[in-house]
Design a protein that fits this description.
The complex is a heterotetramer of chains A (288), B (358), C (240) and D (236).
Chain A lengths: L1 H30 L6 H19 L3 H22 L9 H23 L15 E4 L2 E4 H23 L1 H11 L1 H5 L5 H26 L7 H15 L4 H21 L5 H15 L11
Antiparallel strand pairs in A: 1-2
Helix pairs in contact in A: 1-5, 1-8, 1-9, 1-10, 2-3, 2-4, 2-8, 2-9, 3-8, 5-6, 5-8, 6-8, 9-10, 9-11, 10-11
Chain B lengths: L7 E4 L3 H21 L4 H27 L7 H17 L4 H23 L4 H21 L11 E2 L2 H5 L2 H28 L1 H11 L1 H6 L4 H27 L1 E2 L1 H4 L6 H11 L5 H18 L9 H18 L3 H9 L11 E4 L6 H7 L1
Helix pairs in contact in B: 1-7, 2-7, 2-10, 2-12, 2-13, 3-4, 3-5, 3-10, 4-10, 7-8, 7-10, 12-13, 12-14, 12-15, 13-15
Chain D lengths: L1 E12 L2 E12 L3 E6 L5 H9 L4 E8 L2 E2 L5 H6 L2 E4 L11 H8 L10 H7 L1 H5 L10 H13 L5 E5 L7 H8 L2 H6 L3 E6 L2 H7 L2 E6 L2 E7 L5 H9 L6
Helix pairs in contact in D: 3-6
Classes of the chains: A mainly alpha (288), B mainly alpha (358), C alpha/beta (240), D alpha/beta (236).
């Protein structure tokens, strides 16, 4: 039974990882840009949420409604000020610039919030669970998973069914040909960054409600997001979800078997195995 | 082959390189004098500066000459350092003689790491290396028995019970300086050699290089392994001085790769001189702004925020870095004579020859 | 004469797109072969497959009788296949001499003074010696094309693959280049030359191959091929 | 007044000068062919009009407006559509999605999805299929249909016949009268000279970045074209 229990937690955790990874996958897909500050933005969102709750009271959930639009704005701003200058540039400079951004965000958070760990209090929801047979399923992890799937569904509807979504995919395929259709690629890039940051804000708040967080957590989250993207294979949102779930499963099942080892190690090991065996990811296209 | 009219020869050193070379030797001699002195604070600074010169130069050799941008070089720092701990604390070996084998351990480890990480390109290689460094960190943390003692870390016992403190600082500073000189010399010689020629070709146009017979994978592999060796040695030297080691800092990305990247980009990526200048500048500025009693005393947080902003500004607007900008303006400016100037009688620069040949 | 390059039943697909369709031809030792055909006929793809940038989907490529179909580009270069590419991309951070030295040291596997002398010789043959110490990033288009040629020569090629080396040059420049290539050919190097500037080709090549839709259209005497109905139809369309 | 005026334009790809003081004009409602060998500068000309290659000197005017400072995606909104060389289909989109992307600017006009399908019936059958899986001819039809969805005033066709079998080329060109009937001006760049001349009113032949011959399409002799096309040195 413990195995089933661990597997279910793994799948539910995978939803969170997919949420982290979505923005990363989107910016890479559309602009071939990797933002190394991606994880720090999630941590920033958790801190902002805690500030809002401390100032205005209530549950962290309402802050999502405020912070997701704020995240969109942050993404657009970052795109205009930083990322636009990095599209098509030597990866070394993309890495240095976004690495610098990561250092700035981490230390700004440290300055404002000190090194103490914080948590977002969601009250009794955090511990509520229901049982099917002998397996207990946490209500909050389930909710988190459902929200992640909803985000992915709405994103894939946006990409698949709307004019802007099609422009997105067209730009990702061939930016120059997209411009020949009248699509302003810079505007598309701004929307992509806006979505990337607002989804990672959401992920940060959900993560902060489950476990406490500190200003230095960002890089660890970035690695999870990155692993989910690579394991799932580039190029599809559902691949990212699958990658997130595979990562979550590796962590919980690994920790179940080897109880005194850190769970993230098993995720890393899965990542390295995928790299050695199927470098295009479990669900990736061959030419990716 | 057609006949050769005038004998051709290749000139490497110029007046500028000779003058700057003498200056460089003088700086090293001055540092050796300080290292051999009896001021532990100065000796500590020399060790720190030299270690960062080594690691930054090696990172630049990878990123600036082969396009392998890694944010996992801390893996080799930690491997070198922990190998030293194992030789010293575990097997009771003399620490100074353990530095070389520790570096070799890093070298050996780099081979399977390269085989795996070379499957990724660009930014994916960068983060993939980071994951690999994380795996090594977690494994070391997990080894809770002596001599590694897991996540809480341990201390190097041999030097403290064998050598008096003053002697240890002196020896370590001299070793660090020697390592830095060796590392930079190896890089300069490598770049002067045919491998260096191919690396610069690969950097400019990978596809074109392989079309001229360069085995790009092999060249990259060689450089990766060399970088791992020296980075491991630097990690070992660092902890001979610092004594106390913990996996989270020895394998810490913000302790190592973050400042290194800033140093290299600030100094000028893809030049030998850039990382050295970047590292020196970093130390001077950090010393000034964080030491108590200076005019602008900054907290660690503010200091790092400014560092991050500096990295962003340089990467966005000043990609050539300080040395890159200087040598762009004054092309003859180089400390290390790696360029080749061809002299063939009076044919080079003589336009009549061009007409004759066509 | 013996066959030096043999393209045998080669097909290349990129995804669903058929680019080369069962193409077979050969190059004799010491021969210069011109290749013409409209854009998209698969000429550059063919050259790239001979040079080893990628492998054909099916079929075999032989060099000096050895099957080289699966060898990477750097190995083929060392065996004696030199090439120039359509858009010259020199190593811009290196000087002209250093650019050529890469070819001499790796493709030609020369060391030290040997590499230097081969590089100097290649520069002299292409008229680039005077520019030896200039950074390649500062060259004009003609000089880049000449550098492209010198680099290929420095690898001691038995076969030289030229991809639109005359494209984009003025008439006078083209004439200069023709003389250079004639010289290389006269020294015994076998040549496959893709070119749209037909009059340049006609001055050098011994034989002409016309391609269309990834297939061989016609091959034979250069003037005969260019005057043939097949080639005229491809370029100017069938007469109504 | 001419809809498109190209006045003494120089254009470069890096160091490579592709157009040398090129001058030509296209009247509204006309179909104009630009022929010439590879490397003559035909595609560069179209790219300079579409805005993907900058002009270094000279002037491109569309409907009297100088396009110098108009970004390429704005030119599309103004009614200039390019069917690019090599088709540049969006491979991860379906056929229908490619067409819908073509209508991104939502310019009003006669060209709608049903009308494109009516003119290219094979596209309707393939509507839901991934565009990457189409044959060359189908992709070319899609590229033209996609450009028409913008309801352009000026349609630029770059090497429509490239790599296609003659029968397919013929079927693609058969749509041209329908396009012109809606008042669209067409500028055709082609290697297939006869096809291009048959479809157009005026023709310009380019040689090495300059106009080597121009005139009414029906009045140009094959000998004159042959000389202007290859340069004078080929004995044919």
């Amino acid at each position: 039974m413990n195995w089933i229990q661990a597997a279910i937690s793994g799948v539910l955790l995978g939803g969170l990882y997919a949420l982290y990874a979505t923005g990363l996958s989107l910016s890479f897909g559309v602009m071939r840009l990797i933002n190394l500050a991606h994880g720090d933005l999630a941590v920033m969102a958790a801190f902002l949420s805690s500030t809002l709750v401390l100032s205005f009271g209530g549950s962290p959930f309402w802050t999502i409604l405020v912070l997701m639009p704020v995240g969109f704005g942050v993404g657009v701003l970052l795109q205009k000020v930083v990322f636009d200058r990095l599209v098509g540039v030597d990866p070394a400079f993309q890495i240095v610039a976004t690495f610098g951004l990561s250092i700035v965000i981490q230390n700004a958070l440290l300055k404002v919030y000190t090194a103490d760990r914080r948590a977002l209090d969601i009250g009794p929801l955090k511990t509520k669970a229901f049982k099917i047979a002998e397996v207990s399923i946490g209500l909050f992890p389930l909710l988190r998973f459902v929200v992640a799937v909803l985000v992915l569904v709405s994103l894939s509807l946006f990409l698949g069914r709307t004019s802007t979504g099609r422009a997105f995919r067209a730009t990702s395929d061939d930016p120059e040909a997209a411009r020949l259709m009248g699509i302003n690629s810079r505007a598309i890039y701004m929307i992509a960054s806006g979505i990337a940051v607002s989804t990672v804000f959401l992920a940060g708040i959900f993560s902060g409600a489950q476990t406490n967080f500190a200003s230095s957590d960002g890089p660890g989250l970035l690695i999870f997001a990155f692993e989910a993207v690579i394991i799932g294979g580039l190029g599809s949102l559902w691949g990212t979800l699958a990658g997130g779930i595979a990562l979550g499963l590796a962590q919980t099942l690994g920790a179940e078997q080897f109880t005194d080892w850190p769970a993230q190690l098993f995720g890393h090991v899965l990542f390295l195995i995928v790299l050695a065996v199927r470098p295009n990811g479990l669900f990736g296209r061959a030419e990716a | 082959m057609s006949s050769t009219a005038a004998p051709a020869h290749v000139v490497r050193a110029t007046t500028t390189t000779r003058i700057l070379g003498v200056l460089a030797v003088l700086v090293v001699a001055w540092m050796a004098f300080l290292a051999a002195g009896d001021n532990p604070a100065t000796q500590t600074k020399i060790v720190e500066l030299c270690v960062f010169v080594v690691v930054a130069s090696m990172w630049n050799l990878l990123a600036g000459y082969t396009g392998l941008v890694s944010i996992g070089q801390q893996a080799f720092i930690g491997l070198g350092a922990y190998a030293l701990i194992v030789f010293g604390n575990g097997y009771g070996q003399d620490v100074y003689f353990s530095i070389l084998p520790a570096a070799l351990i890093a070298l050996v480890a780099s081979i399977p790491i390269a085989l795996l990480a070379f499957r990724l390109r660009g930014a994916y290689f960068a983060i993939g290396m980071w994951v690999i460094a994380e795996v090594v960190r977690l494994l070391v943390k997990q080894y809770k028995a002596a001599p590694i003692k897991g996540g809480s870390g341990t201390s190097l016992v041999v030097p403290t019970n064998l050598y008096p403190k003053a002697e240890r600082f002196q020896t370590t500073a001299l070793i660090a300086l020697g390592l830095a000189v060796l590392a930079v010399t190896v890089i300069a010689l490598l770049l002067r050699s045919r491998i260096g020629l191919s690396l610069q070709a690969v950097r400019d146009n990978e596809h074109g290089a392989s079309g001229l017979g360069v085995n790009v994978y092999r060249e990259r592999f060689i450089v990766f392994v060399i970088a791992a060796f020296f980075t491991g040695a630097a990690g070992a030297v660092w902890y001979v001085l610092k004594i106390r080691i913990q996996p989270d800092t020895a394998f810490g990305v913000s302790d190592w790769t973050a400042p290194i990247v800033v140093m290299v980009v600030l100094g000028g990526i893809g030049t030998i001189e850039g990382p050295i200048i970047g590292a020196a500048l970093w130390y001077l500025v950090r010393d000034y702004v964080t030491s108590t009693g200076s005019a602008i005393q900054l907290s660690d947080e503010w200091y790092l925020i400014l560092t991050g902003l500096l990295a962003m500004v340089v990467a966005l607007f000043f990609q050539r870095g300080l040395w890159g900008a200087l040598s762009g303006r004054f092309p003859s400016l180089q400390v290390f004579p790696i360029r080749r100037r061809l002299v063939v009688g009076d044919e080079v620069g003589d336009h009549r020859d061009r007409k004759r040949a066509t | 004469m013996s066959t030096v390059i043999e393209v045998d039943g080669v097909t290349k697909r990129f995804g669903a797109l058929l680019v080369i369709d069962e193409l077979s031809f050969s190059l004799e030792r010491g021969e210069a072969l011109g290749v013409v055909g409209p854009n998209g006929a698969g000429k550059t793809t063919t050259l790239n497959m001979i040079a080893g940038d990628f492998s054909p989907t099916t079929g075999t490529i032989r060099f000096d009788g050895h099957d080289v179909t699966a060898l990477p580009a750097h190995r083929r270069c060392r065996m004696g296949i030199g090439r120039t590419s359509q858009v010259p991309r020199p190593f811009e951070g290196l000087t002209v001499f250093e650019n050529v030295l890469v070819g001499a040291s790796f493709g030609g596997a020369h060391r030290g003074h040997g590499a230097r002398d081969v590089a100097v010789d290649a520069l002299r043959r292409t008229g680039m010696l005077a520019r030896a110490n200039v950074r390649a990033g500062e060259l004009t288009l003609l000089e880049r094309k000449r550098l492209e040629l010198s680099r290929a020569l420095s690898t001691d090629p038995e076969v030289l693959l030229l991809d639109e080396i005359a494209g984009g040059l003025t008439d006078g420049e083209v004439m200069d280049l023709i003389e250079t290539i004639k010289g290389i050919h006269a020294a015994g190097v076998s040549i496959i030359w893709i070119e749209h500037i037909v009059h340049a080709l006609l001055k050098v090549v011994d034989r002409m191959l016309a391609m269309d839709y990834g297939r061989k259209l016609i091959e034979g005497d250069p003037h005969g091929v260019m005057a043939s109905d097949e080639v005229k139809n491809v370029y100017l369309g069938t007469e109504a | 007044m001419a809809l498109l005026e190209i006045d003494a334009v120089d254009a470069f790809y890096g160091d490579f000068q592709a157009l040398f003081g090129l001058t030509l004009a296209v009247d509204e409602g006309h179909a104009v062919a630009v022929i010439g060998a590879n490397g003559a500068g035909k595609s560069t000309l179209l790219k300079a009009v579409a805005g993907s290659v900058p002009t270094r000197s000279g002037c491109v005017r569309f409907d009297g407006t100088n396009l110098a400072d108009v970004l390429s995606h704005r030119r599309v909104a103004a009614g200039i559509s390019l069917v690019p060389e090599g088709r540049r289909i969006f491979n991860s989109l379906s056929v229908e999605e490619n067409l819908r992307v073509g209508a991104f600017c939502e310019r009003p006009g006669p060209w709608t999805l049903p009308k494109v399908y009516e003119n290219f019936p094979m596209l309707e059958r393939l509507a839901k299929r991934s565009a990457a899986k189409l044959s060359g001819g189908e992709q070319q039809a899609l590229a033209i249909g996609r450009a028409l969805m913008n309801n352009p005033r000026l349609l630029l066709l770059d090497e429509v016949s490239l790599g296609l079998a003659p029968a397919i080329v013929k079927s693609l060109y058969a749509v041209l009268p329908n396009i012109r009937q809606e008042g669209t001006t067409v500028l055709i760049v082609e290697q297939d000279v006869n096809q291009a001349l048959a479809a157009s009113d005026m023709a310009y032949c380019l040689l090495e970045g300059k106009v080597s011959l121009s005139g009414r399409a029906s009045e140009l002799s094959r000998a004159a074209i042959s000389a202007a096309y290859f340069g004078s040195e080929v004995h044919t």
